[in-house]
Amino acid sequence: xxxxxxxxxxxxxxxxxxxxxxxxxxxxxxxxxxxxxxxxxxxxxxxxxxxxxxxxxxxxxxxxxxxxxxxxxxxxxxxxxxxxxxxxxxxxxxxxxxxxxxxxxxxxxxxxxxxxxxxxxxxxxxxxxxxxxxxxxxxxxxxxxxxxxxxxxxxxxxxxxxxxxxxxxxxxxxxxxxxxxxxxxxxxxxxxxxxxxxxxxxxxxxxxxxxxxxxxxxxxxxxxxxxxxxxxxxxxxxxxxxxxxxxxxxxxxxxxxxxxxxxxxxxxxxxxxxxxxxxxxxxxxxxxxxxxxxxxxxxxxxxxxxxxxxxxxxx
Length: 315
Description:
Blueprint: E1 7-8, E2 11-15, E3 18-23, E4 47-62, E5 76-93, E6 98-115, E7 128-129, E8 132-140, E9 143-145, E10 148-156, E11 159-161, E12 172-173, E13 180-181, E14 184-192, E15 195-206, E16 208-209, E17 222-223, E18 227-237, E19 242-253, E20 257-259, E21 262-264, E22 270-283, E23 286-299, E24 302-314
Antiparallel strand pairs: 1-12, 2-3, 4-5, 4-24, 5-6, 6-7, 6-8, 8-10, 8-11, 9-10, 10-14, 11-13, 13-15, 14-15, 15-18, 16-17, 17-20, 18-19, 19-22, 20-21, 22-23, 23-24
């Protein structure tokens, strides 16, 4: 799931007497760092779960295809997002070692501040609801060792539906106005009872947006390129309740964006980030996770700092 929980659309800027060429940021909202520690399994088995995410993102660098800062007086972007996730893991079995489940996620951009130094003549932004994400999943039973679990994994077929707020006259929208498929594989490995490593690897495929942003001019449709993105984390249990560790994410667009069916060069996006994190378990049913991420090597997208707190409850 979506982090970056805001879709930043096409960035077209005009400085005094100078035109800044249109920049890419075509990919939809994806899960960049929203999940981290112990990601391969649900913490308390079958039943209903709620997860609430609060995320703050801050950037003063919007980048071009070479990773350079856009030639605008300012490129200050700050937004805050609340994401509500509801999950259900059933008792329906898939073979002898897995169960079926279903995820629903809905983001809401509660604050959106964009300052281009030109009274937002170059970059226009709006908040509101993001796209609904739905994903049936198969959760595999843990592989057990002598001292507890050794490995657990899950696969999910996530679909992003274009239900969010979208305005073709805005450069930054919570919604994407296109269906996308974002299936993933998540896994956790226990080196020993206290030390784990986790990952979640997505493949993103986007369908056409038939009402593309104004910055591309008079065109019929736009199709964002395909991408691979992943979260990774490792943690150590310093007490039975508290885990400390490192977390990160990586995004790489692997095919060109298409406009009216033609490939457009120089619009591929990339970024990676790393930072510290912590997880505190009040009980097997209640957990809080905090993560910080510091982005690096961004191209055709913002580069900044992401702070997140997530609360997990099993009913």
